[in-house]
Amino acid sequence: MRYTALLFAAARAGALGLVFVGSSVSADNEQFAWISKHDRGIQCEREGVAVKEMEKELTGSGIEVFCGAKVGFVVAAVCKGPTGTDNVYAIRSRDLPRAQALGFGVFPNDGRYGHPSPICTPIGKP
Question: Going from the N-terminus, what domains does the chain have, and what CATH number goes with each?
Fold first, then answer.
């Protein structure tokens, strides 16, 4: 599995209370959805969970991951506050309800919040 470089963005859709479905179609007509989850990092205290480590939450539940990346968002600098870093993954659209049950949210992978689009490129089955 390949991972893209660390990417930064200017705002977090979840912080604004917005939900957007990001999806695309691969060459073999596979429908993908982008999901994200805060990496649980706390400023001044601990680093967040690595992309590969959090991916195990998905794969352990039978959800195939096609690519993943870290995305940072602007947050107030304050000790004990969240880092503003999410782990983002491309999965099959049909697996979206199962990922949401694990606490992942839909990630808008269209560049509207300043991050490059796409965050990562699904490269086929690992």
Answer: 7-106 (3.30.70)
pTM for the full model? 0.70
CA 119 distance to own-chain centroid: 8
Q: Could you give the angle at the alpha carbon of 89 between the alpha carbons of 61 and 15, nearest 5°? A: 110
**Strands 31-38 and 65-72, sheet pairing:** unpaired
Q: What is the mean pLDDT of each run of 10 residues along the chain (126 residues)?
A: 27 32 44 91 92 96 92 88 90 95 87 61 53
CA separation (Å) from 122 to 54, 56, 64, 111? 18, 17, 11, 16
Other beta carbons within 10 Å of 103: 10
The CB-side HSE value for 10 (13 A sphere, CA atoms) comes to: 5
